[in-house]
Amino acid sequence: MKLRIPLATERIRSLDASDMLRARIGRAYWGTSFDLIPENLAHRNPLGAFIRNLHEHHANGDGLLMFGDYGTGKTSAGVLVLKETMARGGTALMIPAERISSAVIEKTTFDGEEDMWERMQDVDVLLLDDLRREHVKDFGKSVIESLIRRRYDQRLSTLVSTNADMDELVRRYEASMAALGEKCQPIPFEGINWRDDGGSSAGSAVCR
Ligand SMILES: Nc1ncnc2c1ncn2[C@@H]1O[C@H](COP(=O)(O)OP(=O)(O)OP(=O)(O)O)[C@@H](O)[C@H]1O
Ligand SMILES: [Mg+2]
Fold it and tell me: SS3 breakdown of the chain: % helix, strand, coil, rounded to 5?
């Protein structure tokens, strides 16, 4: 197990492209900014509070369960937390849920020291993106459950984004949902479809 260093209480460094690449954040999300979230959206305040107190959430292993329809900003919100984590001296990783089992089977490399499966298990904050009920076969399901369980046991923060409704997820991931339910604050995303309604300037900004 790696030594855990507390996160700083505020940003201590700026980020560049190498941070984004190391965290496996897709280029479309590099420019994601909290300031671009309209003030009337319900997820803005709980997300802002989570980011402000990130050092405490990191210490407790608290995460987020971000759920809602297509294009409501869930992945972007998760990326904001990853960026803040790195800016405060921590490590971060984004992994699409559907790629987890192939990363395990193919022993995908993370860097010279670790493979992806190890990195998913020990990174300070993990964004498990687009968790669905239906797309994982049984092997994928057990890998995801084991990942959630291991991170729970180590008190590491996990962020989950999903389009599925909670009942579906609970039915599918019964064992690990208890861990997620205990450690993840649920935040509903609604009231906007960024892809249709706006946010056209969003992807173009540089990493902040
Ligand atoms: N805070 C933000 N800052 C900048 N751009 C944003 C932000 N939130 C959303 N967007 C823009 O809106 C688009 C859709 O957001 P996002 O991908 O986060 O939605 P989602 O809820 O994860 O969608 P899906 O359910 O399809 O996975 C993004 O590609 C991004 O360009
Ligand atoms: Mg998404």
Answer: 45, 15, 40
